[in-house]
Amino acid sequence: MEEFQPTEHQHVRYNPLKDEWILVSPHRCRRPWSGQTEQPPEEPSPDPNNPLRAGAVRPNGQRNPDYTSTYVFPNDFPALLEEVPEPPQPKHPLFQAAQAKGTCRVMCFHPDSTMTIPLMSMDEILAVINEWIEQVKELGQRYTWVQIFENKGAVMGCSNPHPHCQIWASSFLPNEPRVKDRCQEEYYNENGKALLVDYVEQELKLKERIVIKNSEWVALVPYWAAWPYETMVLPINGSPQRMTDLNAEQKRGLAEIMKQLNTKYDNLFQCSFPYSMGWHGAPTGPSTTQGDSPHWLLHALYLPPLLRSATVKKFMVGYEMLAQPQRDLTPEQAAEKLRQCDHKVHYKNRKTK
């Protein structure tokens, strides 16, 4: 029997954050691709009719102010409303419903529709981070969960190229953080240490999956990553549990690593790299206090779909939907490819020199 080679032989990897397994099939990287290709991601261009730009009139008739930094407003088509009636009690346990209250907001990062995170200045990114903190601080006083997320690129369902994210706050704990909360609490009770704090320490020793790091943060491809170039951004000093507890050094370091990681992403395939990203931290609510969730560590997730080029993406269908996540490229191979990409000079700026 030949010796196992992780870059040659299929195997499964455990994701302790979600109590699930990932199938890794690296030999599939050799197969020719004759399936669907996407149009290369479009470069953002100025649109005088873009409803998110400064001074624009949105479809509901509201006019945006002439903002010069970040701008937050209620989503004109929210998935969650603050006042809704409560569903009736179920007549059978198989047909349960519960009340869902919340609010949805849109947050513009920058007044320029052609701008993206890797092209923004450090101070502009820091303004985004500070506004995220203010939103979580305000909404977290009332709601159990505050989900910040950004869908970037048409291939990820983003309907507007203007640099922006969404913030959904809910009275309930959604599925993903609910599972993470359980898994992290079980690990903490068994080991006396936060799962992700332990994980970061191990990754910093191994260095196999680290993409980039500074004095406060590390961006890495998780050992259990499902998407081809998926990354996590984690604080390296063991805290905080929530975004609202970031200190000044962590905020500055986060702005730096966001800019550098996104520059690497764009340079990988010479395109404005599409992804869904978001933040997970300890649940919020009126009864929460700083340090009350020692099993949690704040972290960001970047989930990009591109696999082989700017036009070939990973499809989460079939086996992934009916059995479990599957990937071809190993996390270590993905991390190495991202490490090799320039994090200082964006490809757009190289063209002008």
From TrEMBL:
It holds the Pfam family GalP_UDP_tr_C. Its cofactor is Zn(2+). GO terms for biological process: galactose catabolic process via UDP-galactose, Leloir pathway. Keywords: Carbohydrate metabolism, Galactose metabolism, Metal-binding, Nucleotidyltransferase, Transferase, Zinc. It is an enzyme of class 2 (transferase). PROSITE patterns: GAL_P_UDP_TRANSF_I. InterPro entries: GalP_UDPtransf1, GalP_UDPtransf1_His-AS, GalP_Utransf_C, GalP_Utransf_N. CDD domains: GalT. Residues 30-68 are annotated as: Disordered. Its EC number is 2.7.7.12. It comes from the Eukaryota. One of its GO terms (cellular component) is cytoplasm. NCBIfam families: galT_1 (TIGR00209), PRK11720.1 (NF008724). This is Galactose-1-phosphate uridylyltransferase. It comes from Parnassius apollo.
